[in-house]
Design a protein that fits this description.
- It is a single chain.
- This protein has 261 residues and is α/β, with parallel strands linked by helices.
- The chain is built from 14 helices and nine strands.
- The strands form two sheets. It has a six-stranded parallel sheet, with helices on both faces.
- The longest helix is centred in the C-terminal third of the chain and has 22 residues.
- The chain is globular and about 45 Å long.
- Strand 2, helix 3 and strand 3 form a beta-alpha-beta unit.
- It has a single domain, classed as Aldolase class I (TIM Barrel, Alpha-Beta Barrel).
- 49% of the residues lie in helices and 13% in strands.
Length: 261
């Protein structure tokens, strides 16, 4: 899939589910995501055999845009981590892309070499914890900037406090502590899309979903979150139909730059 198509999917959805629950089946979860009205899912590489899961999703659900997250784009740190976790190593960025990831996400920054190699073909979303990091990563070519850990950084207030010249140019994707209680506030602060893990689903409900492997229930819960995103974005951008717009339409209507080469 072309980079512009991947970006269009992420922005149309406005919601990125972070798959980090090993007790759920990856494909059945992807099917629940599709049933909820979304077309992307992010697979954290901290789960067991992430490359196999990414490849399986791409093979069995080619219509789903798949991302790889929790990447460590630092050879030294990655080597140190994998030496201590040789039974469950983290993949490199290139390994994740080779497995089929169409967008890559990290808790930290990506190296210039990664932008040089994959920029323009793969959507790159670095994790940023400061205004300086956001600006620096965008200057290198980031398409979106993940604000992480969003809750600990200050939540919607952090996004809103960033100079409008920055956060109204660079599209920020808060992840970490995002849920139904604060999605509206994030969108009001200027966010176009949010990243959420399964913790956005009420704990008792999630426990039932896992215990009973009820993917219909999962789809219903995800649909509630998607509806929440859609309703708040419709209020914020009344002239923009996200469901029909492409990335260029969204850029023109919101003033955001997505670093499309």
């Amino acid at each position: 899939m072309a980079l512009t198509d991947t970006l269009t999917t992420l922005l149309r959805d406005g919601f990125i589910l972070v798959f980090n629950q090993p007790k759920l089946d990856i494909v059945r979860t992807g099917q629940a995501v599709r049933q909820a009205g979304m077309a992307n899912m992010e697979v954290t590489c901290r789960i067991d055999r992430p490359l196999e899961k990414i490849a399986r999703l791409r093979r069995e659900m080619p219509e789903l845009v798949v991302g790889a997250a929790s990447l460590i784009d630092s050879p030294g740190m990655l080597a140190a981590y994998n030496a201590a976790h040789s039974d469950d190593p983290l993949p490199t960025v290139s390994e994740a892309i080779d497995a089929g990831a169409e967008y890559i996400v990290s808790a930290g920054n990506f190296r210039p070499e990664t932008y040089e190699r994959f920029g323009g073909t793969t959507v790159i979303m670095p994790g940023c914890g400061s205004v300086t990091e956001i600006i620096t990563q965008f200057a290198l070519g980031a398409n979106l900037c993940k604000v992480f850990p969003a809750a600990e950084l200050g939540g919607p207030a952090f996004v809103k406090a960033i100079d409008p010249a920055i956060h109204k140019t660079i599209s920020l994707v808060p992840t970490g502590g995002t849920n139904s209680d604060n999605i509206g506030a994030y969108i009001a602060a200027g966010v176009l899309a949010v990243g959420c893990s399964f913790s956005a689903i009420p704990k008792a409900m999630l426990g039932t979903i896992i215990d009973t492997q009820d993917y219909e229930m999962l789809a219903r819960e995800l649909a509630k979150l998607k509806k929440l995103v859609d309703s708040h974005r419709a209020q914020q951008y009344p002239g923009l139909d996200f469901a029909a717009a492409d990335v260029s339409d969204i850029a023109a209507a919101t003033g955001r730059s997505f670093n499309i080469r």
